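Entry:
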Amino acid sequence: MINVCIVEDEQAQADLLTNYIQKFETKSRKQCNISYLQDGLDLVEDYKGQFDIILLDIQMKHMDGMKAAEKIRAVDSEVIIIFITSTVQYAVQGYAVDALGYVLKPVPYLQFEQLFEKAISRVDAKRQKVYIRVNEEDRQLKLDCETVSYIESQRNNVILHCNEADYVTAGPLKKFEEMLANHGFSKCHNAYLVNLSYVEAVQKEEVLLRGDVRLPISRARKKEFMAALTEDIL
């Protein structure tokens, strides 16, 4: 099931897009769960990374689509955004929020189908990945686990050390250990869960990760960690 959200303040346009998606479903045998929101503000207020594709009108009353897309991108780099617009003047701005493309109103089915099919292909490809959903302060983030080099336990929280930034969220570390057990992560120490693809070397008392990160490896964990590392390499 592919979760699609139509954000459009004109009911007739929302109905048209719904009909187009249903037509695409029949033709492609893909199943979509369609949600409908009337404004960009409705989209960002309770966004939890629940959608795969967002069809986003640009000109809306309370929050325009471009502003909504910027806020969504701050917490979700993966969701596919397609702009529905009455003018091409916003097309260049779409690159700033990594939009897949845009469709001009009145929306022609053939153009919609080509772009929507491309979006579906990206969703299918992304579903081969594993994502971690974490709550950080007042927002929920969806992180690609491939970007997480290691996760560190710190009191009642954990720190996810990612390529671009670190994120602090509620623990315990055991929750993440169970979640990522079959996805190339292993504990080198009670306080550290490591993405094995980032390991460059294991020395006597520490693990060396890419970026010259050094983590302690405990005697109790070393045998299991080395076995997991060997299996990951093979």
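The two ends are 33 Å apart (CA to CA).
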